[in-house]
Specification:
3 domains, six-stranded mixed sheet, 10 strands, alpha/beta, 367 residues, 21% strand, Rossmann fold, 10 helices
């Protein structure tokens, strides 16, 4: 009975996951699961799942096979008309399903047909792995090294004159036994850092920030699935840039002008200080509505990207969130200068529905 229950439970979990996969595009654009994120799990509201249950009918109310009927009589209806008034019938079932971030990343990869990320270099030595790399004369029988034991016994018998080539019998004694021993060895890990940059000038409103927040969640989910350890840094900018925490990043709104180069300079400073490119896989994502203060600052941005930032990065992604107040010029400038650069990817994000396409443009290169 217990085995059957477990089997049914596993089957129901597969049904729920199938429902999530089926509606994943909706979750990706609506962002309704972001606030339900725990350390390793996400709670996802899954609609229209029928939960099995027993239901008792009213006494003496009749039913299928009870009493006489006529051809064409509907089966299983109560005869009540539907309407807008409150009733006692059942409504749509909603189930909150727990899904690990790893499973969510796999669903994302299947939905968007994402290639696995190919990390560059090796990261910091962040872990130790046990490896049987030595021999000792004491240990448990389960770790006895037969070849080394035989060699020690043979050596002893030859030295003592007990070995007979005509009758080559080698019998180990206790002092001949040798055992494997393990030693901790450093295990290199591929580490990554994501640097998020966002324009918080007056033209970037709450709707634009919600789009950035939703897209960033899915970017995090995918990159975390490809790396052992990950750091995330946040930079906001208007005419000046500053590093902030996650909450401040998504909820700050300024009213000044925009100098995009200030964010790129700060990102470069973070990399030089904390993230040597030969030890870290570095990803930079910049979100803006496309306004910059001047053509001179745009030229400075191009020089910073070409000469300093892009050579150090796995990927630089620029997402232009459409705003009624933004000119949208910056993405055109980037395309003019970096159309052939594989490590620089641009994407127009007109609304929440465009998040799906934008994620595929950003993550589809496997960098």
């Amino acid at each position: 009975m217990i085995t059957g229950i477990k089997r049914d439970h596993q089957r129901f979990k597969q049904i729920v996951k199938g429902k999530i996969k089926q509606n994943l595009k909706k979750y990706m654009t609506q962002g309704e699961i972001i606030g339900r994120q725990g350390k390793d799990l996400v709670r996802i509201p899954v609609h229209q799942i029928d939960l099995p249950h027993f239901r008792f009918g009213q006494r003496q109310s009749g039913g299928v096979g009870t009493g006489e009927g006529e051809a064409g009589t509907p089966v299983g209806t109560s005869g009540q008309e539907g309407g807008q008034k409150a009733g006692q019938g059942e409504g749509e079932h909603t189930l909150e399903a727990e899904v690990s971030l790893q499973e969510l990343a796999e669903m994302l990869a299947q939905e968007l047909e994402l290639p696995r990320i190919e990390p560059k270099g090796q990261g910091s030595l962040a872990a130790k792995k046990s490896k049987y790399s030595g021999i000792h004369n004491i240990g448990p029988n389960s770790l006895r090294h037969l070849k080394r034991t035989y060699r020690e016994a043979l050596k002893r018998q030859i030295i003592s004159g007990q070995y007979n080539p005509e009758n080559p019998i080698v019998v180990p004694i206790k002092r001949d036994f040798r055992y494997r021993i393990w030693k901790p060895v450093p295990q290199p890990q591929n580490n990554a850092v994501i640097i998020y940059m966002m324009d918080v000038s007056g033209s970037m409103g709450d709707e634009q920030k919600e789009i950035v927040r939703t897209e960033s969640f899915w970017i995090d989910t995918w990159i975390r699935a490809n790396y052992k350890d990950i750091d995330i840094r946040y930079i906001i900018h208007d005419a000046t840039a500053r590093e902030v925490d996650e909450h401040t990043f998504y909820h700050t709104r300024e009213s000044g002008g925009t100098l995009i180069s200030s964010a790129y300079r700060m990102a470069l400073d973070l990399i030089k200080k904390d993230y040597p490119p030969d030890e870290w896989n570095i990803y930079a994502f910049h979100f803006s509505d496309g306004d910059n203060w001047s053509a001179e600052d745009t030229k400075l941005c191009v020089d910073l990207l070409r000469g300093d930032l892009i050579p150090k990065l796995n990927l630089f992604c620029y997402g232009q969130v459409e705003s009624r107040y933004g000119s949208g010029q910056f993405i055109k400038d980037l395309l003019d200068h970096f159309r052939e650069e594989e490590r620089l990817v641009t994407s127009k994000i007109e609304n929440k529905e465009a998040i799906y396409r934008s994620l595929k443009e950003f993550l589809g290169k496997g960098k």
